[in-house]
Amino acid sequence: MTNLSRRSFIAKSAVVAAGAALLPGLTQCKSGKINIAVIGVGGRGKANWSECMNENVVALCDVSDDAAAEGFKTFPNAKRFKDFRVMFEKMANQIDAVIIATPDHVHFAATMAAMQLGKHVYVEKPLAHNIWQLRTLRKAAQHYNVITQMGNQGHATMGIRYVKEWYEAGILGNVKEVFAWFDGPGFNPKGYFLKPDSYPPKEEPIPAGLDWDLWLGPAAYRPYSRFYIPRFWRGWYELGNGELGDWACHTLDAPFWSLDLGMPVSVDSILRTPSPEGFVTDQSVLKFEFEARGNKPPVTLNWYEGGVKPENRPEWGLKELPGSGMIMVGDKVSLMTGGRPNDPKLLLPEADWQKFTKNLPAETIPRVEGGPQAEWLRAIKGEGPMPGSNFEYSARLTEMASLGVLSQRFNTRIEYDAANMKVTNLPEFDKYIKEPVRKGWEYGEDLWKS
After folding, report:
1. β-pair type (266-272, 284-290)
2. Residue among 22, 21, 24 at smallest CA distance from 9
3. How far is it, in rounded angstroms, from Cα 410 to Cα 400?
4. Is residue 188 part of a domain?
5. What CATH number did the domain enclosing 121 receive?
6. Mean per-residue pLDDT pooled into runs of 10, the chain (450 residues)
7. 147, exposed or middle or buried, with CB in 10 Å at 0-12, 13-18, 19+?
8. Neighbour count for residue 304 (Cβ, 10 Å)
9. Any domain includes 382
10. pLDDT computed for residue 386 by the predictor
């Protein structure tokens, strides 16, 4: 499949949620295979391209030869690049769709570069690094008329559909409180966060095969250190979004979708252990407040991380809370998931729970076969609906999390005017709503001019 751009299909540009009607008019090719480029080949990149082995992977782009080594070996005929801008300049007409699995701070630039050329995009979570970028991606998805998906795998599961169906069937009753907790960040060399010996980290020699300047991309220059890559960039707020940004797209996906939460009117930092400027904290507690939505009551959502947990309520019937999880507190019954929404359970006596599982409410939401990558590929081929975690949905989910990240980062209260994209009690936060970028990495400004 070649030249599958916004000019080559007649699909309606409105972005729809999972279960909507099939998108009409997507151009099909004789082979039925999609030409895919991958930006960010190792780590999550591999997890994504390994689910696309029946398609044509035609280009691999990574700033690190070491990170891309397995991808290069798996796809020896794919063309290799370090700079995605060069890749698109040289072979845009040979690419239909792009997987973006870079660090958070590069997501937006790589995604916009692809969408501007009419390429369908699959982007690792969190979708982007700041709120302006998220709003711009929503605009771009409609303007360029492409198929979009964010890689929060739980949104394609049966479990999250159960949560929404049970809530909408009235099983939980009214939900006014949500508790969510995650046991990270864990600071160790084998994990995703690591504390340096000094702040900022000491400069070290740039490894052979790594283009450090390209790795920084739109972010301000800083000297190379092993405390940034391959995974530890998540702990630096100018590059990543901390544990909350990393996991809210999983843990808070079910309540956000089921309760139709929208944007919080405020986020309060209840607890934050001290940390060096610009670096994540060991422990945090946040309180999000959401207004009533139609006949749905206001909701208070509490987020705990770093081993802090909510108080275990007797009515939940739990001996102890697991390391990570989420509870939607209903006035009829409460529902719990783990850190992902895959396996929900009503907090009932065991006999009542077993009885419930034998007579579940009607399935009203279409199921996804094969996971989020397959869902995306089917939509591109015109064989399925727009993916459930399309940018119209996933950008809003990520925006909610991004407000929490701001509150957590600065240990402050955020009062948010979503319509105007403003932190009303801290106007100086405009520079975090839309962060500056280095010259040559500007994207999306034109979409705000019309």
Report:
1. antiparallel
2. 24
3. 16
4. no
5. 3.40.50.720
6. 36 32 36 93 96 98 98 98 98 98 98 98 98 98 98 97 98 98 96 96 98 98 97 98 97 98 98 97 98 98 98 98 98 98 97 97 96 98 96 98 98 98 98 97 94
7. buried
8. 22
9. yes
10. 96
311/316 Cα distance (integer angstroms): 11
Residue 285 and residue 270 in contact, taking contact as beta carbons nearer than 8 Å: yes
pTM of the model: 0.93
Distance CA 175, CA 313 (A): 16
Q: Is residue 264 part of a domain?
A: no
What is the tally of structural domains in the chain? 1
pLDDT at 32: 85
Q: What digits encode the pLDDT tens for the residues 12-27? A: 233 333 333 333 223 3
- Distances in Å between the Cα of 444 and the Cα atoms of 44, 112, 184, 219, 307 are 25, 7, 34, 16, 39
Domain membership of residue 127 as a residue range: 35-155+369-389
- Asked if residue 129 belongs to a domain, the reply is yes
CA dihedral of 184, 185, 186, 191, whole degrees rounded to 10: 110
**Could you give the strand order of the β-sheet that contains 266-272, starting from the edge strand earlier in sequence?**
345-346, 335-337, 325-330, 175-182, 299-305, 284-290, 266-272, 414-417, 422-423
Contact 14, 138 (CB under 8 A): no
